[in-house]
Amino acid sequence: MKIMISQVGRELYKVPLRILDHRVFVNGEIEAFLENFEVRRNDSEVEKLFQVTETVGSLKYDLSRCSATGRGSGAENLAQLDTEVSHLLDGVNALLAKAKVERTASTQLQEARLAREQRRAEFLTNLEHGYRRIENSFEEKEEEIAELYSDLQLKLNIAK
Length: 160
What we know:
Blueprint: H1 2-20, H2 23-69, H3 72-100, H4 107-156
Helix pairs in contact: 1-4, 2-3
Function: Component of the biogenesis of lysosome-related organelles complex-1 (BLOC-1) involved in pigment granule biogenesis.
Subunit structure: Component of the biogenesis of lysosome-related organelles complex-1 (BLOC-1) composed of Blos1, Blos2, Blos3, Blos4, Dysb, Muted, Pldn and Snapin.
GO cellular component, one term: BLOC-1 complex
């Protein structure tokens, strides 16, 4: 009986540690927040890049139209602006292509996620095992108390 009480005491001592250990939950929330932030940010950045592409494209069209009608040094300046805008458009297109590339998580991050999932599964297994042990000990105690009570009734000749 003392052994069971000490086991229950040990389990009760571990309960606050198990209940108050929020690291797994907090890490999951941080990961979800970062993922949402990156997705939202990337969407807005891609939209801005498309707007820049449209603006640069329209400028290029306007510059090419102006350079066709221009004369003298103004035409040279427009030609130079046209090449610079073309380079800018190429840079924006390269940046868009780079933004579209799916980034995979690093192996270290994947290993950390796997380890976290394993720790969580182990924690849940241990928790379930602890619950079963406590429940079994309570059932055993109920049976012992019922036996003791029935023995006491027999000894005292009390009718049920």
